[in-house]
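name: query_chain
kind: protein
chains: 1
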Amino acid sequence: MSDFFTPDFFTFMAIGFLAQLIDGALGMAFGVLCTTALLSVGVPPAVASAMTHVTECFTTAASGLSHAYHRNVDWRLVARLAPAGMLGGAVGAYLLSSIDGSVISPFISVYLIVIGLYILYKAFRPSWPRDVRDWIIPYVGGFGGLMDAIGGGGWGPVVTSTLLGRGHDAKRVIGSTNFTEFAVTSVISLTFILTLGFTQLSSAAGLILGGVLAAPVGAIVVKHLPVRPLMIAVSLLIVLTALIRLL
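structure:
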């Protein structure tokens, strides 16, 4: 038992809890924050992304059910996002598993910086009303799934930020993207397991426990927390940590 509850376990648990708390409230940042943290302690890019997505199988299920319970989910939006997101995620996971981690790591850090700046941009961009018939939804889902697998995070920053920026209802977008992420991350995780094996992913236990504990809280927070200040804080955190990793 003492071998299981190591300092790394509690570190990962804290990372999972804080990342999921932010993700559940904002609809983004769990994957980006976790992957950035794992990369910063020397975990290879493919394994970091795989650990994050295995963890998200549990956290997104808990978060998605919590959002559904609180009536934050638009099922028509889920139906349009999920198929494209799952396809893009499978392709991205396969590509990342086939690339040398030392080669792609700097590019992932640059990607994370771009995502962080994109979130900051979306925090100040005015929106206009859109409904679920918006033509861009499937394309955003496919690109979000692809970037999520390659970067170890990106579903929320790409999908949630884009839909919020186009004027979709914030509560529905956050709830629906959290719920849809379970299907997307399950496909990504399965692809990683088939290509990497499961033994490299056992360290995800701390991330899983912390994330599951935080998931129900995020669905409640989303109703009360101001979105813009949190988006600004998340964007600056992502850019800073990724920049340190890149340098």
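note: The CA atoms of residues 11 and 206 lie 8 Å apart.
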